[in-house]
Amino acid sequence: MPSSDRDAERAREQEHALNALLAERDGLLSVLDRVLALQGTARLIRDAAGADAGFVADLDGPSRAVIRWIAGNRTDSLQDLAVPIGQGIGGRVLAFGEPVRVSDYVTASSITHQFDGMVRREAMSAMLAVPVLTERDGRVDTVAVAYAALRGAGEFGDDAVGAVQAVARDAARALRLADRAEAGRTTAVAAERQRMQASLHDSVGAMLFSIGAQVRDLRTTLPDNPLLSTRLGRLESDVSAASLALRESLLALSESSPERALPIELAEHCRSFEARTGVPARLVQLGEVAPLDEERTALLIGAVREGLLNTEKHSGAATVVVSLGMVDGGVQVAVADDGAPESGAAEPGDGAGLGLRMLAERAARLGGRVSLVHDEDGGTTLRVLLPVHR
Question: Which domain of life is it from (predicted)?
């Protein structure tokens, strides 16, 4: 096999191996994080409500939840039970986003009865279900359902409802942290793919280009040797095919969802700044960020580039932190350093550099704002806030 074919095959094998490992690790860590967030919730529900059993149904798609965690069960009849929206007590919670309680599940007229058989096998009577709620972009969504159940006579009062709601709020906070961790992992995975893409381009790509150029030179200098010219032609075709396969592999590695593009770009600028200046620079992502259009994404990337450039030129900073997050319904980036700005530095609209003035004008056209703040104890922070929509 020609060396060009081996190089291209090696590139494809590396890509497939990376994809498989990243998918396996990403999926496993995602499951583990959600388990860690909810595994103790069922027991907490049972204890908080003074119930005989507690269980949690995790959202599985837009219109159903699946009971994953149970404490105090006698059988496996409820384990992994899918509860569609509108069905039973949990489905009613999914539909309305409010607590629901019944004094006797199998005779209650306020719910449907698809699950009576499972409930009878557990000998459950009174039951309470409350939503686990999270807020995103001003909208409150149900992401799980917390249940408490009694065996024998009894019912759940207002105190029990409040106690289970408190447990649900704690579970919601744990889920938000798990989701943020997952977002950070996904960003890191995409950044690793981008680094691998650059490495393959610089090594294998450059090698194939060099081989192709040498083959073309040989064909030009040996025009009177038909046999050798034919063999060189086949080699040139092989190199061209290998280059095409490499380009396809690089394209696959570069694919990422729009909402990940911004943090990946910002992380790359931080790495470039640190490599160029020796000053530590890191990106801190403060939760998930709403997807932005191309113009807003480009402006925020340009803002960070401008902020890092000013830090490099003027501040003598020892460290730099770039942050990204949702603030006041918009997306904000901030570049903060601990250096000492030059005397006479000002706000973007008051005599600051041309780059900052242009940045402020572009942000204003999109309904955003730019601020440059010099701390009294040293350090400068550039902030740019853009609304998600206008």
Answer: Bacteria
Do the Cβ atoms of 126 and 155 come closer than 8 Å? yes
φ and ψ of 310, to 5 deg: -65, -40
Contact present, 323 and 284 (Cβ < 8 Å) = yes
pLDDT in tens, 178-236: 566 555 555 555 665 666 666 666 666 677 777 777 777 777 776 676 777 777 777 77
What local confidence, expressed as pLDDT, does residue 335 receive?
92
Q: How far apart are CA 227 and CA 48, in angstroms?
A: 86
User: For residue range 307-329, what is the model confidence (pLDDT) as tens digits?
Assistant: 888 888 776 788 888 988 888 88
- Where do the domains of the chain lie, and which CATH numbers do they carry? 1-255 (3.30.450.40), 258-387 (3.30.565.10)
Q: Which residues contact 222 (CB under 8 A, 6 or more apart)?
A: 228, 229, 232
Q: What proportions of the chain, in percent to the nearest 5, are helix, strand and coil?
A: 55, 20, 25
Phi, psi of 286 (to 5 degrees): -95, 70
DSSP string computed for 141-166: EEEEEEEEE-SSS----HHHHHHHHH
